Amino acid sequence: MSKKHNFSAGPCILPQEVLKKASESILNFNNDNLSLIEISHRSKPFVDVMDKAINLVKELLEVPEGYSVLFLQGGASLEFLMVPFNLMKEGGKAAYTNTGAWAKKAITESKQFGEIIVVGDSSDNNYNYIPKGYEIPADVDYFHCTSNNTIYGTQMKEFPEVSSLIVCDMSSDIFSRKVDVSKFDLIYAGAQKNMGPAGTTLVIVKDEILGKTGRTIPTMLDYNTHISKDSMFNTPPVFAIYVSMLTLEWLKNHGGVEWIEEVNNRKAAMLYSEIDRNPLFEGTAEKEDRSNMNVTFLLKDSEKEEVFNQMCFSTGINGLKGHRSVGGYRASMYNALPLESVDVLVNVMKNLENN
Amino acid sequence: MSKKHNFSAGPCILPQEVLKKASESILNFNNDNLSLIEISHRSKPFVDVMDKAINLVKELLEVPEGYSVLFLQGGASLEFLMVPFNLMKEGGKAAYTNTGAWAKKAITESKQFGEIIVVGDSSDNNYNYIPKGYEIPADVDYFHCTSNNTIYGTQMKEFPEVSSLIVCDMSSDIFSRKVDVSKFDLIYAGAQKNMGPAGTTLVIVKDEILGKTGRTIPTMLDYNTHISKDSMFNTPPVFAIYVSMLTLEWLKNHGGVEWIEEVNNRKAAMLYSEIDRNPLFEGTAEKEDRSNMNVTFLLKDSEKEEVFNQMCFSTGINGLKGHRSVGGYRASMYNALPLESVDVLVNVMKNLENN
Predict the structure, then answer these.
(1) For the whole model, what pTM was predicted?
(2) Residue in B31, B235, B316 closest to A11 by CB
(3) Chain B window 161-220: which residues touch A at a Cβ cutoff of 8 Å?
(4) Set of chain B residues whose Cβ sits within 8 Å of the Cβ of A9
(5) Which one of A143, B159, B168, B276 is separated from B68 by 20 to 30 angstroms, measured CA to CA?
(6) Structurally, what CATH architecture does the domain formed by B256-354 represent?
(7) Taking CB atoms and an 8 Å cutoff, what residues of chain B touch A215?
(8) What residues does each domain of chain B span?
């Protein structure tokens, strides 16, 4: 069977060597003749995995002292609820940017807790740009933004200076580029893009911001619960955390975030150049806000789609269909996607032009 | 390396053929040359997995019409919160049994929502029995119980007749014995005992009981959210659901719940007989409430522990250490544990006596 080039938007491609080790661990983990998924999460081999995963996050992202790293469940969708529960004061308010479907869900969820001020909003143009130049009131409990919008192919290149706390949903671009964690108070990310399989959520939170709202927070929704139990308050999603650990190890061994940022820049440059050069295609996101993770584009003549789809299929290109709310195509180029796959796609685009 | 006999309390033993298929799926799922964990959860191959898993639950447990089957995240611990959020009216009350550490956590969580009446409580004797003969007030919004208590080795053999709704945490004995689902309004269970790996939670809920509390329920905590999206409101824990599907398929192919109940009865009879016969050992739970899943016992002479531990180790017996709150030993004999492993343990116990 031909090699696949996996441009899936998430869950998405993971490094082959990670998949190999993950597969082995299901049969025999730690050379112990037991499967990873049939041992106690409190056994030393798994506690070591958890510690290693947490330390790799700290090392790769240069997480400063005073922050906790958590592996939780429920995806970014549960964070949309946990963030206001933990950070918005009774009768408080928060500022959000509305940059896409996920940001909108975060806004909806937070409205149960207080006043929400949408300070930047790109819904007027189907979220094809990142709002800028907005003002964030100084008296909000926190400012919330989404760093990368998978559906629309936009990405924040800079983060605003704020006087309040700043919270960021980095689900779809964490570990893809250098970020100064010290400028954030809380970062969260579903694992299933650059970190691992679906089933766990990474949270990086500055300890001192917690416990200040006066709210009664349900046990499982309180970050302090999970901090005090090292993410083992209840049975953690063992497999998802193990594979995340392997993926972070892979990233470290290849040169870390600095290395992958350069690779990601090269991949993005290759594909965006072709989109801009090739008269058959056009990008859908504003150029200055283009995402390095998710490249959204259209065939100007939609009648050519059938041929293009067939050419993609026959070269092993997978997961290129755009989200239904944007249409066209979306090439997701997460960390594990090799340059070679981008090259294959670019060649198919050239071939379509030449035929 | 010698074969392991895995008595781990959870995450626990899964069938070898399930582990083999799970391992293969990480490298090449569905013969598509892609890993299970790098494809979209909305792709047909995974939607098929989800459908199959739901249908297997319905078939194996004979779930009646009018119930929904959900695969969620957050474990039983998040259900402790979701149950009162969805079922307890504003200013309402609920009845709980306190049969162990997990029941106690469920009680603690529910207290934020209304009046909690503990109708049966075995904490007076370190939870070594199941309370019976209690009365459940007719005006509670629901009655909540825990069917099996892993730490203490007790199990409800019968469920009370109630006039209110009845909710049961079946995390540690679901799929181990016949249960009349029609008698329950809501059943939940963390996957990591008889169903699959850690990382997903099974919920079986009678649709008509929902949406009646007058509460505003956060999106992710509202069962109706997940019902309306077929457990795909957000990215599901793909791997945990796939392995659950495989495990349920294994159960069905071997004869279903009726078959495994008989096997489980035989395993329990073998081990409890030896505990009662062998003068060196004693069980810790009341005989009539003994669990078929978790067998808790002590060496009367604790000085023999070192020798016994060594004998267990050298025969490949794993995970036999009792929970710190009970001490001694705990042999967890979930569905996938073969009779052979129980035989090995019983022989070690006999050998200890004969030496």
Answers:
(1) 0.97
(2) B235
(3) 190, 192, 197-200, 216, 218-220
(4) 40
(5) B159
(6) Alpha-Beta Complex (3.90)
(7) none
(8) 16-254, 256-354
Element (H, E) at B256: helix B256-277
Q: Select from A257, A318, A264, A238 the least CA-distant residue to A43.
A: A238
Q: Is A320 on the interface with B (CB under 8 A)?
A: no
| Closest B-chain CA to A234 | B77
Write out the CATH class of domain B16-254. alpha beta
Which of B4, B21, B26, B226 best probes binding to A when mutated, by most A CB atoms within 10 angstroms? B26
Q: Is B193 a catalytic residue?
A: yes
Is B102 labeled as catalytic in the residue annotation? yes
Q: Using CA coordinates, name the residue in chain B closest to A231.
A: B74
**E strands, B99-223, where?**
115-121, 142-146, 148-149, 154-155, 165-169, 186-190, 201-206
